[in-house]
UniProtKB/TrEMBL annotation:
This is Glycine--tRNA ligase. It is an enzyme of class 6 (ligase). Its main location: cytoplasm. One of its GO terms (molecular function) is glycine-tRNA ligase activity. Belongs to the class-II aminoacyl-tRNA synthetase family. Substrate binds at residues 106, 194, 241-245, 348-352. PANTHER family: DNA POLYMERASE SUBUNIT GAMMA-2, MITOCHONDRIAL, GLYCYL-TRNA SYNTHETASE/DNA POLYMERASE SUBUNIT GAMMA-2. Residues 128-393 form the Aminoacyl-transfer RNA synthetases class-II family profile domain. One of its GO terms (cellular component) is microvesicle.
Length: 488
């Protein structure tokens, strides 16, 4: 079981959160009003990084695979969608309140954290029997039993320190709102809690109009909303977040092979992006959701322990079959190779863009200390780094700014480039390190004579002299997605 810690206990996460805020990556939403819990805004460098990650995922899906196309479905969907998908009836988390502190918790998380504490103290068997008991009670939907487990174990509220608990209740995580301007006619609709259903309801539209043949996939990136009971750990668990999901439609009976293939492909993708193998692991689900016949998570070792970043699920024909029943519209595919109609089975890969962002930031955040000096920098893969190069005239005179501006103009249509001429060159290097710019290009007096510049490399701080005419090629090579695609 993964070790769990609260953010207050985790110094590294705290450093990353303050770095993200101070250097323009992530701010709390509507901060001047003291923020809104579990909602965040991305700043100048954050949005570039996030867009690069999304584009990398999108192009991996729609270009590296030649049988995947994309869609962009609406956030609002017909309310019956969520009946058919099972979200109205069962997209719940069990919650419990402490009567003294008035704080609300996820009952299952309280038990899991208690078990993790026991495990850390060496009481492994007790921890295992506790998590097994929890799984049995949740499976049987025995909420009174979950409450008994919490009180019998003497689990206390970390705020009040008491065990004065309410009953455990189910809490539906979907946000609802009213559509229609006249109150009497208005009907309740939901903000989508996952993007997948927009793909399922469009399965036949896409299959027919893009002339796809099974096996094929549909990819989508978009916002999803969940009224998470406890939102913690920065952008790890948000109430408004972005998902990148791909549903791969296959012939029934072949789904478990495809499931393995996708699990391996997605793992290779994370490795190709530079995440160390030791920080990634696959975790098979012991308890499967009602719609799945196999499921696993790809977990990353965040500062607060190994946690899910991506889910790979074999969803059978559950969703399409259920939409067929509720809509009374056939969701079948005619397979010319075997001359048969069937409802395809589905393998899903689902990753949160914000969680991938947090993974990338945690991986990149580097503090280097030697006897002489210490340095903090963000070691992003150049392909996703928010700024690719900073062009820095070493002095603000003698025609150097003009020469530097010429270089900016020659590069800026292809790369995100920064020009900066104030402060010492050392300070300017430091500033670029803090936002993870892979190349600093210094323009000096020699540049005016021979059209060469100094490139300073972020990770090694080494410097080399190169011709201006080489810059475009060098940056293009280092930042191209192609090098990542080739490793998948
Ligand atoms: P968890 O167990 O962490 O709640 P989940 O199993 O409910 O996640 P899925 O429904 O499988 O998550 O969603 C797929 C992906 O969407 C997750 O792997 C994660 O990257 C992302 N995700 C889910 N919920 C959130 C959230 N509240 N905030 C940010 N990302 C999320």
């Amino acid at each position: 079981m993964a070790k769990t810690e609260t953010p207050g206990e985790n110094a590294q996460l705290k450093d990353i959160i303050s770095h993200a805020k101070e250097y323009g990556f992530v701010y709390p939403s509507s901060e001047i009003y003291d923020g809104l819990q579990a909602v965040y805004d991305y700043g100048a460098y954050g949005v570039e990084l996030k867009n690069n990650l999304k584009r990398l995922w999108w192009e991996t899906m729609t270009r590296v695979s030649d049988n995947i196309v994309g869609i962009d479905a609406a956030i609002f969907m017909h309310p019956t969608t969520w009946k058919a998908s099972g979200h109205v009836d069962s997209f719940n988390d069990p919650m419990i309140d402490n009567k003294d502190s008035k704080k609300r918790y996820r009952a299952d998380v309280l038990v899991e954290e208690h078990a993790a504490k026991l495990e850390n103290e060496g009481q492994v068997e007790k921890a295992n029997s506790l998590t097994a008991a929890l799984a049995r009670l949740l499976e049987a939907e025995d909420l009174a039993g979950v409450r008994d487990l919490i009180t019998n174990e003497g689990i206390k509220c970390p705020i009040s320190g008491t065990s004065n608990w309410t009953d455990v209740r189910q809490f539906n995580l979907m946000f609802s709102t009213q559509v229609g301007s006249v109150a009497e006619d208005a009907s309740t609709i939901y903000l989508r809690p996952e993007t997948a259903q927009g793909i399922f309801v469009n399965f036949l539209n896409v299959q027919k109009t893009a002339r796809m043949k099974v096996p094929f996939g549909i990819a989508q990136i978009g916002k999803a909303f969940r009224n998470e009971i406890v939102a913690r750990q920065f952008i790890f668990r948000m109430r408004e977040f972005e998902q990148m999901e791909m549903q791969f439609f296959v012939r029934p009976g072949t789904e478990l092979d495809w499931y393995q293939k996708w699990a391996d492909t997605r793992m290779r993708w994370h490795l190709a992006l530079g995440t160390p193998a030791a920080k990634l692991r696959k975790h098979d689900h012991e308890k499967l959701a009602h719609y799945a016949n196999a499921a696993m998570d790809i977990e990353f070792e965040f500062p607060f322990g190994f946690k899910e970043v991506e889910g790979i699920h074999s969803r059978t024909d559950f969703d399409l079959k259920s939409h067929q029943e509720y809509s009374k519209k056939k969701q079948q595919y005619f397979d010319p190779e075997i001359n048969q109609n069937y409802i395809p089975y589905v393998i899903e890969t689902s990753i949160g863009a914000d969680r991938l962002f947090l993974l990338t930031l945690c991986n990149a955040y580097t503090e280097e200390k030697t006897e002489e000096k210490s340095r903090t920098y963000l070691k992003f893969h150049p392909a996703v780094a928010p700024v690719k190069a900073a062009i820095l005239p070493i002095v603000k005179k003698d025609g150097l700014p003009e020469k530097a501006q010429e270089i900016v103009d020659a590069l800026k249509y292809d790369f995100n480039i920064i020009y900066e001429d104030s402060g010492s060159i050392g300070k300017r290097y430091t500033r670029q390190d803090l936002i993870g710019t892979p190349f600093c290009i210094a323009v000096d007096h020699q540049t005016l004579e021979d059209n060469t510049v100094t490139i300073r490399h972020r990770d090694t701080t080494e410097q080399e002299r190169v011709a201006i005419s080489e810059l475009h090629g060098r940056i293009a090579e280092a930042t191209s997605f192609r090098r990542i695609f080739e490793k998948i």
